[in-house]
Amino acid sequence: MKKILSLTVIISVVFAFGACRDESLNPVPAWEPGVHAYTVFDGILFNGNVLQRPQPYEVENARNFPRAVQGSARVNFKIRWVSLDKKLTVSKIDIYVRMLEAYNDPEGNPKIADLSGNGKGKLLTTIATPAENRVWNLFSITPDQVYNLYRTATVKYDNVNSINVFNNPSRPRPVGSRLRPREQAAYGAVDADSFIVTWVLTTTDGSVFSTWNFDGICNDQTAVSEANSNCQLAFTVR
User: Fold this and answer.
1) Are β-strands 154-155 and 137-141 bridged in parallel, bridged antiparallel, or unpaired?
2) Mean pLDDT of the chain
């Protein structure tokens, strides 16, 4: 009887504490709905292997700007947003692009300049009326678009003087090409200009979803499915 009485008292105390718990103090908040996106290079076919990740169309540099005749060039993409629980609807997709210029400093050390200045890139285009959940939206990036975004960008190649990237007298751009391929300069090899595409999703309730941690859903290694996700794609000049 003493054991039964003791257990009864303990259970009563536990229930009493449970009933009085303040959920606002719970360190683990309730899960909220979210959305993510999946972007690939358009025009590259699925290779038939459902277990392979990444697929050819989501590998960096699967498509690139040409070395010459850049005026008519473009890289085509397609993007879709995904809401797994179907509780949110994306109303706008902003597409950003970063431009990275490779150069060698006065001592011949290879350097990379992020011309965006903020590590986030510049707004390239907005998909104002995205297609519904899991349906592709198409967009393209041209050399002219990138040039117009970054034509005023400057870099301190000598760590002192700011020089316009597209009007650098000590390293002129190739004739007819605003974006530079890999080259062999007098002071060593220099990598090509490169570009990183990212995106920001806005939902009808005003929520905004962007990338802040590339260790999460950005590196999802699941097999090809309707829930695929990534957070950026990169390409260059070749």
Assistant:
1) unpaired
2) 86
